[in-house]
Amino acid sequence: MPDPFADQPDWAPRPPRPVALVPAAAERELRGKRLRIGLPGTGWRGDLRGDEKVVQRSRTYVPVLPEQEWYRAESEDVEVFAPLVPADRVWVERTDDTLTAPVRDDVLSRLVSLDAPAPLFPVPVVDAGPLTGRRLVHMDDGMEQRDLRAVTELHTGADGDICVRAAQELAWYRWVWTGTPPETIELPVHLLWVE
Q1: What is the mean pLDDT of residues 5-34?
Q2: Averaged pLDDT for residues 102-116
Q3: For the chain, how many structural domains are there in total?
Q4: SS3 track for the chain
Q5: pLDDT at position 173
Q6: What is the C-alpha to C-alpha distance for residues 13 and 143, in angstroms, rounded to an integer?
Q7: Is residue 11 part of a domain?
Q8: Residue 189's domain spans which residues?
Q9: Can you name the residues that pair with 135 across neighbouring β-strands?
Q10: Whole-angstrom Cα distance, residue 46 to residue 90?
Q11: Closest Cα to residue 172, out of 149, 147, 146, 154?
Q12: Among 38, 62, 99, 168, which one is most buried in terms of CB atoms within 10 A?
């Protein structure tokens, strides 16, 4: 199989791994994992985190929380309500080296199956449209740094590079429940992707 990055310049980092969605039944540990919930043929909801599976009357459920509530519960040590979602309606996000991004030349090439949530292929920040609040992946020396949120749009940084300011996801969500703006870092666009 030919290397899809063979023509890539030396200074450009490889893109981050795509995110596959696997049924919750296939995962042993769910605590803190990113989840999607939904029904085939109906639709999907993301920005959720899970807790360990629960069995009630021989049916398996997954406690599911919006990410903001999960982060608040973990960092503030408070109890929050987590609805139990049948495990067959839950998918877990997992990075996957084997997925390759489809070539999307026209609308027909963008069609997906409604049987399960579609994989997430990171998009370079410069091609992603509005950024504020979106999940980012920062590539630094071949390492992926995930769990970041964009807090600005594209701008010119202090050294003249085109940049985006980002915050750790916990700080992004803490901003909501405390009102305290997060500490941010300025990252150059050529090292950033949107999930």
Answers
A1: 83
A2: 83
A3: 2
A4: CCCCCCCCCCCCCCCCCCEEEEEHHHCCCCECCEEEEEECCCEEEEEEEECCCEEECCEEEEEEEEHHHHHHHHHHCCCCCCCEEEHHHEEEEEECCCCCCCCCCCHHHHCCCCCCCCCECCEEHHHCCCCCCCEEEEEECCEEEEEEEECCCCEECCCCCEEEEEEEHHHHHHHHHHCCCCCCEEEEHHHEEEC
A5: 96
A6: 10
A7: no
A8: 122-194
A9: 149
A10: 10
A11: 149
A12: 62
Query: Is the pLDDT score of 128 beyond 60?
Result: yes
CATH number at residue 146: 2.30.30
How confident is the model at residue 2, as a pLDDT? 45
Q: Which of 52, 80, 95 is the last residue of a domain?
A: 95
Could you report the per-residue pLDDT of 139-161, keeping only the tens digit for each? 998 899 999 999 999 999 988 99
Whether 140 contacts 45, CB under 8 Å: no
Final residue of a structural domain among 46, 78, 95: 95
| Nearest to 56, CA basis, from 29, 21, 83 | 83
- % of the chain surpassing 90 pLDDT: 79
Q: What angle do CA 104, 110, 111 make, to 5 degrees?
A: 155
Q: pLDDT by residue (tens digit) across 80-105?
A: 999 999 999 999 999 998 888 777 77
Is there a contact between 52 and 30 (Cβ–Cβ < 8 Å)? yes
